[in-house]
Amino acid sequence: MKPYQDFLDEIIITEEQLQKRIRELGAEISKDYAGKELLVVCILRGGVMFLTDLIRQINVPLAIEFMAVASYGSGARASSGDVRITLDLNTSIKDRHVLIVEDIIDSGHTLAAVIELLQTRDPASLYVCTLLDKVSRREVEVPVRYRGFAIEDKFVFGYGLDMDDYYRNLPFIGTVNLKKYEDPT
Ligand code: IMP
Ligand code: MG
Predict the structure, then answer these.
(1) Which of 83, 126, 148, 153 has the fewest CB neighbours in a 10 Å radius?
(2) Ligand 2 ion: residues within 5 Å (CB)
(3) Residue nearest ligand 1's atom 5 by CA
């Protein structure tokens, strides 16, 4: 894997901007769920960094759970719409307040499938918190209650988001120069 500096186009959200916005989201969620308990469902693997920072900013009692989702034709940089659950929850969500935490919504297919599945299990409430939203790419409607940043239609990486499974550990969000990324030299 190349050093990210070789194909980074631009840092569009800095570490400071991420952390500031996450504090705001945590405060908003804490206010909205005051007096309740939360079950935060993180979509693996991209949502992990966001989850761990976000839950430290939430002050209502909460439990965490994980789900993993794949869409057929992985390797492609666009979701196929054919979504498959590869890791399901370990707990019942019946009558619980569920908040789904996701890294990014692009076409919307992934989250639409997750929401449809979880709704059948009778949660008390079910809402979505996404760090990033590529609004202009939406193919299916997804109700988003909490949104970190709306971004342009560019491929991004860092802070949980990967390029072929790497670079998730970077503390910022950057755009990719795909030509440089794919250049074999
Ligand atoms: P959707 O089903 O098209 O909404 O795609 C959502 C999933 O695609 C996310 O959970 C990400 O894993 C991935 N994804 C979409 N856009 C990007 C991107 O710009 N960088 C990295 N991953 C992305
Ligand atoms: Mg991904």
Answers:
(1) 153
(2) 46
(3) 106
| Ligand that lies nearest to the alpha carbon of residue 165, given by its number in the listed order | 2
Alpha carbon 122 to its chain's center: 23
Q: Does domain 14-155 have CATH number 3.90.170.10?
A: no
Q: What is the pLDDT of residues 20-68, one digit of tens each?
A: 999 999 999 999 999 999 999 999 999 999 999 999 999 999 999 999 9
**Tokens found for residue 127:** 């809402």
Task: Quote the tokens at residue 90.
Answer: 């370990």
User: Once rounded to an integer, what is the mean pLDDT over residues 13-24?
Assistant: 98
Q: To 10 degrees, the CA torsion angle through 3, 4, 9, 14?
A: -140
Q: How far is 13 from 15, CA to CA, in rounded Å?
A: 7
pLDDT at 116 over 70: yes
Q: How far apart are CA 145 and CA 182, in angstroms?
A: 36
Please give the pLDDT value at position 80.
Answer: 64
Q: Residue 179: helix, strand or coil by DSSP? A: helix
Residues 80 and 109 sit within 8 Å (Cβ to Cβ):
yes
